[in-house]
Amino acid sequence: MSNEIAFSEHIEELKARLKVIIYCLLISSIAMMVIPANTDFTRNPLNFYEPLIGLILRSIRSYILESPFLFYSLNSTRLELIAVEITAPLELYVLTSILFGVLVSMPVIAYEVYKFIDPALYPHERKMIYPFITSFTILFIVGGLFGFFILCPFLIWAMLPFYHIVGAQAVISVIDFYNVIFFTVLMTGLSFTIPVIFVIFVKLGFIDTTIITKRRRYIYAALFILTAIITPNGGPLADLALFIPMIILLEVAVLVAKKYEGIRERRFTLFPSVKYVKCNYCGAEISEGSVFCSRCGRATK
User: 191 and 282 in one domain?
Assistant: First the structure.
């Protein structure tokens, strides 16, 4: 009965924490939609004001399109954004508000998840999980910033010459433009976390560093294909811009993972594996060399 009560209490706690997360997401998303970006509208309340999400989108657009990467001397080609569909601005407005609402809510989400799972973790599990989460988060943020400030302008810049070559106007759907930006930032952030996942797999004993050290040419080829998937419109130069830091991070991860391999080898030497045999009387498994069976108590020799 106590187990059932404990389980129901866990369910109630989970429901309560999910409610906090959902409410926080709703409030954050709505705030992005309605909070004004400035106080100019107070002087003219009848004039349509710019919401906070509008300021964010305008800042993203300005940075990408006015980046020094986008200077193209042959024809001064400039990228122009158009709506294409009548509902495109509204769709972008809502979806981007939700996206940044999730980003703003991440500290609350992380805290609620932490408070829910922390009591169930053993001390050695905490020592492994929390450094992993911290490293994963830091690398994801660094990768996302690299994708936005370096890779995204580079992608747009790399495509502009081809508009001039084929005689096309540099015009793109506003939805496609922001999809490229958000997809690139997300995938770059995730790609930067690959070394952390590799280290944790080595630490748990699922793989070892030889999977990379003995197959570097194949691993590097696979990573280059991955960078081509992440940057489909940037050409080989954009692929290299992402490929080089990923290789550096992976090599650092190999060095870190080798330390955990050394710890595993020392543990194996100090605590050799115990062999088990079956008791001749009751069939219970007992360690080899034991005089008495731990189940039936009879002598095994």
Answer: no
Distance CA 67, CA 61 (A): 10
What span, in angstroms and rounded, lies between the C-alpha atoms of 93 and 112? 28
Rounded Cα distance between 48 and 267, Å, is 68
- State pLDDT tens for residues 134-172: 999 999 999 999 999 988 888 888 777 777 788 888 888
Does the structure show a pLDDT above 70 at 124? yes
Same domain, 174 and 298: no
- Domain holding 286, by residue range, is 275-301
Q: Are residues 19 and 125 in the same domain?
A: yes
Domain count, the chain: 2
Is there a contact between 54 and 45 (Cβ–Cβ < 8 Å)?
no
* Backbone dihedral angles phi then psi of residue 171, each to the nearest 5 degrees: -125, 135
> Residues 232-257: pLDDT tens digits?
666 677 788 889 999 999 999 999 98
C-alpha–C-alpha distance, residues 78 and 76, integer Å: 6
In this structure, are 264 and 281 located in the same domain?
no
